[in-house]
Amino acid sequence: MHNTHRRTFLQSAAALGLAGLSAPLIAAAKIKPAANAALIVVDVQNCFVDGGTLPVKGGAEVVPVINKLSTAFENIVVTQDWHTQGHASFASAHPGQKPFSSIKLAYGNQVLWPDHCVQGTDDAALHKDLKLPTAQVIIRKGFHKGVDSYSAFEEADRKTATGLAGYLKQRGIKTVFVSGLATDFCVAWTALDARKHGFEAYVIEDATRAIDLNGSLAAAWKQMAAKGVKRIQSTDIEVVA
Ligand SMILES: [Zn+2]
Fold it and tell me: How close is the Cα of 147 to the center of ligand 1, in Å?
């Protein structure tokens, strides 16, 4: 009796083309960010798009993706790279050095960049098409003249906190979804530090763009995977339009 039922079911399933039923159902399940999740929008500023001082290829393309994603989140954190004049991460601050080379500073290796995202300039302003009216906090980073800060959590000396971990913890946030610019620097360091501080962390790949300097993008993904950062696409998230 049992076998007959089973065979009938299998035949029906085959007839309906449902042989691989479970796999597509799992693949189609979308992530619905909970009330204790936050979207972190990293450095979507004029400096990092075409026309800016340190443009990331395709940087502006993340703007509509992030605007759409934002409606799925109750909590949104925005970051801004926010440097002093003559900042230690600027090649111009080190005689004889050129942008995109590396030097050793007191806290370790530092890639040298063109002057970018100087405090209070239009270049450092958020991209004009970024529409995040419900964002609750803006974390500015890289404002200590002698220390860079790719991460939204900790400066490059790996000691000085930005305050973001405390802010998120005091608000009961457990999971962060990281988007923005650039994938292999500020996004990756932010996601890695989120893990370090005990948060579940996702990077939404198509909501980021990379600089990819000397293989930095592949290295960043590898490092993130090793630390348990989950790599997803914006279409994996349930967005109610
Ligand atoms: Zn910077």
Answer: 10
